[in-house]
Records
---
Amino acid sequence: MGKIHKNRCLLFRFPNAEKMRKLFLLLLFLSLAFSSALKSQLPNGLTVIVFPRKEVNQLVNITVVIKGGSLVEKTPGAASFLLRLMPLGTKNHTKDQIQRILEDNLIDLQTEVNENYWSLSLTCPNSSLGEAIKLLGEILFQPLFDEYDFEREKRKAISELEDISSRPFISAYARLRESLYGTGHPYARLINGTKESLQSLNLEELRSLHLTYFQPQNIFLAIVGDVQQEKAMEEVTNSLSRFPKGERISFSYPFYYPLVRPEVDVMERPSTFAYLFIGIPLPGLNPQDYPTFEVIATLLGQGTSSRLAKALRWRMGISYDFGALYPPFLGKSHLLVWAVVDPLRVEEAKEAILNEITSLDDLGQKELE
């Protein structure tokens, strides 16, 4: 009926849950750019944005973004592990009770950690909005941090990390980011940390990280879906305004020196395929550029009608897989374009990808639509 998410949360899969989460991110940044957006702020400083969307038909998505992420951690992997642990128990509910609430109310709970923020996303029928917001408040502000759960999840995380680190895509992308940002930069390291860093992690560091950053003044909450704005604001106010304000957190994003010349880095390992990665420095996430860079990534490498699909797969027949993405970094970001190809045809693939990137100046209206 349901299944366990990678962060150990019971969830139900709604077909458009991921699309709604991405829609939330886009609307969040647009709301910061246009004063006409439907947004408010609770007395404790928590920012609330509501977007009624009748076309999703009785579904609603609640997404919170907490500023911080791996950028503010002391031990690599601490930010990711914190959000792994938080949904496993709260002051008022055990893990099993939380799973029962999710199941009874058909709530899909997903979590995400990146370099700039933590995010929790709940998708549910609009009739479950109140229960979803109540549970969200407990997870955000009253996590249990049980010692037994901590030790068990640490063992699992280390085991999973060994598998993740052995994947060619992960190791190649990590090397590319180190080339872009430099050793020691928060954006250059793996979000899940290392075996050594996780082994050194302790509960006190997680409690301190949570206490410092998971406070209302540091949180944006958006509700998108088939819901009345007044009803949504009432549910949020009733459930979340009781939590204390805390202190405002100031952020500074580490500077890095972008590449001023082309740089080639080769990693050799036994493999049937060659993984080709191209990274292009870009501005960080902001309301003006975010839609543009998302469209560029989509046109280049997302889907069977993308430019990489047509060039590498259909015309040349040299790519087994491909893609493009724009990481939503608030500091300096980049465009990643990648392809999995025959090792003997790497140069052909590289030239084809660079040609597609430089030809973006010739975009037509039909392709944009």
---
Amino acid sequence: EVALGTGEILETDALVIALSAARAASLLRETDGALADVIGAIPAASSAIVTLAYRREDVRHALDAFGFVVPAVEKRRILAATFSSVKFEGRAPEGVVLLRAFLGELPDDDLARAAQEELSELLGIGAGPLYAAVHRHPQAMPQYEVGHLGRVHAIETAATRHAGLALAGNWLHGVGIPDCVRSGEAAADDLLDKHEHGGWE
């Protein structure tokens, strides 16, 4: 059974939990406290992203890459940036560039200001943005500590106690988008395999 926030109860034969480790642990706590404890022990960091749009003519940098990463030794407020409109065609109208800046924990106004200042200096931007938005992702970036593979093995072994349960997410076998896609596909394949072999009725 799955209890929704609306109070509705869904009865399912199978369930894929594809959430952050903290949220997955919270959902599983009443069903399997030991499993929830192991999942919940995976640490995660928050991320803040500022999305900015500029007129292409106001950006002196060639934008001839997908973005950049800033090493800690540089002691900058910005951690990385992606050139979204270069990386993915159609993300911005003709003559406009869309940039995403990744920063640490700051209030929203400070985040937007810091992103603009850092990108202006690093990319030679000579005007203010046409658009700016702050997006926060609390506890969204799992931190793979020493022993992570052993923890994942323990989680996957414990999850087999629940025939109709599969787990997916960036806290298992990789944090990138392709890793997450593979994780979701593996969870679906696992449930289909269990169903075909009488894992549940």
---
Amino acid sequence: MVIMVIRDILVIRVIVVIMVIIAIRVITVINVITVILVIRVIVVIMVIMVIRDILVIRVIVVIMVIIAIRVIIVINVIMVFTEHIMLDLKRPHLKCISIYYLI
């Protein structure tokens, strides 16, 4: 009887130890999975931030290009005006033609 009880206690202890080891392994696996998921979420957020930054930079570049084109057009218009004024100063009789071109 004593031997049977001691054997049962040993078996229960072995079972408890095995269950504790399994529980520790499960917890470590869950921790690893959660860490991987957190890292993936962080990577996804960083990728989204980078894409947003690229889009913002593209928008800024487009706006700058539009502004540059407008500035070039304004400069060209000013150059045409100055050319017409210079023509007017050089040849007064072409004044009507230059006004016609401006219109």
